[in-house]
Amino acid sequence: MIRSRTGWSSSSAVFTRLDDHFQIWDYSRIWSEVEVAAMLVPAVVEALVGLIVVWLAVRMGQGRVERGSAAGVRTPSTMRSDAAFETANKAAAPLTGAGGAVLTVCGVLAAVLPRHLFGAFVFGGVGVFLVFCFLGTATGVRAARSVP
């Protein structure tokens, strides 16, 4: 037993008083903040990438993506001429834009909804985005093959 100001006590009271004086770190609170930051970063990146894809889809629909750039539907059948490339991109633009919109919405929802739904929105959003992009590519290739 150790004597404190309030009388005799066990040794655990001494450690409680040390915690009060030296402000021992609360690691559970710090870990929670790190966990939230680690979850916010992918959600924000997903939303931003979705916005970039929507912007690119708008440019594709307007015919403002050039054949020499790294963007657009780039397959052997679409790269054979400027007309085929433009036709393919215009055909793929609506589905690509829808995929970008889904990616953006899922990124925002992953950031604001409870943590147990985070993975569903991040990975589900990327999966749906990829499906839309593949469908857009298939539509674009089909349209490019009809160009003489």
Model description:
This protein has 148 residues and is mainly alpha-helical. The protein has one domain. The chain is 72% helix and 4% strand. It contains 4 helices and 2 strands; from the N terminus they run ββαααα. The chain has helices at 11-22, 27-62, 82-112, 118-145; strands at 2-4, 7-9. Strands 1-2 form a two-stranded antiparallel sheet. The longest helix has 36 residues, at 27-62. The model has no long low-confidence stretch (mean pLDDT 85).
Strand order of the largest sheet: 1-2
The count of DSSP E runs of length 2 or more, i.e. the number of strands, is 2
Low-confidence stretches: none
Overall shape: it is: elongated
Oligomer: single chain
Helix content: over 70%
State the end-to-end distance: 96 Å
Helix/strand order, N-terminal first: EEHHHH
Give the overall pLDDT as a whole number. 85
Q: Radius of gyration in whole Å, from Cα?
A: 27 Å
Short description:
The protein is mainly alpha-helical and 148 residues long. The chain has helices spanning 11-22, 27-62, 82-112, 118-145; strands at residues 2-4, 7-9. The protein has four helices and two strands.
Considering the chains and any ligands shown, give keywords for the structure.
4 helices, 4% strand, two-stranded antiparallel ribbon, 148 residues
Q: Any chance you could write out the topology, listing elements then pairs?
A:
Layout: E1 2-4, E2 7-9, H1 11-22, H2 27-62, H3 82-112, H4 118-145
Antiparallel strand pairs: 1-2
